[in-house]
From TrEMBL:
<keyword id="KW-0732">Signal</keyword>
<keyword id="KW-0998">Cell outer membrane</keyword>
<keyword id="KW-0472">Membrane</keyword>
<feature type="signal peptide">
    <location>
        <begin position="1"/>
        <end position="21"/>
    </location>
</feature>
<dbReference type="InterPro" id="IPR010583">
    <property type="entry name" value="MipA"/>
</dbReference>
<protein>
    <submittedName>
        <fullName>MipA/OmpV family protein</fullName>
    </submittedName>
</protein>
<dbReference type="Pfam" id="PF06629">
    <property type="entry name" value="MipA"/>
</dbReference>
<comment type="similarity">
    <text>Belongs to the MipA/OmpV family.</text>
</comment>
Amino acid sequence: MIIKKNLLITAALFFASSAMAGEFSLGAGAVYNESPYKGYNENTSAVPIISYEGDNFYVRQTTAGWAFWKDSKNELSLTASWMPLHFDPDDNDDHAMKQLDERKASAFLGGAYYRHERWGSLKFGVAADAMDESGGVVGEMTYFHPFRMERLTLIPAVGVFYYDESFNDYYYGVSGKESRHSGLNEYTAGDSWNPYVALTAKYQLTQNIFLNASAMYTVLPDDVKNSPMIDREDSFVLMTGMSWRF
């Protein structure tokens, strides 16, 4: 399996649904991911759904944070996130792609700022690769606005992710050595801005049981889709699951 969940899932697809959970919720779900890499069909994987919202500490899916400044409209946090984007050549069906090196998942450390207003919320985040797999830096700017009904909450979101040259080149570049082994063209990726739209839905079945669903569509920038490793111009991710609020 090449991408259990890509970076777009961990950074945006779950943050809204996690933030509106109770003090602690736990569940399980499935992610359907159309991989942009050549040699992969759409794949589905099981994922946990975890959230904890304390006075200062929180866990929102694969991100843990400590809010050192928070009031009714602002939240400024230090964050630690697991970014499971990876590439495993052994799982690929394309002969040329099988000759490439593995790209590993990594942990990122950084910070996030939320601004909450009546018209919606803004999120600004930045983080750096703490395990030095890519040595990259990622950023995020997102607008989201919850619409709460009796049992159903919908959260549309629109935003953009920034990936620096080191991040993109690690996951999408092809080195000279890899080019000679695989026959793929040598490629060096630059930094990029990835726009996306997303929709999260949360339905309360009982006092404690919730159904969760999230979908995200992302347009791949030129520095990603021009890579010889890529055969798509966009990316789509869908998550469904169930969680229990304690």
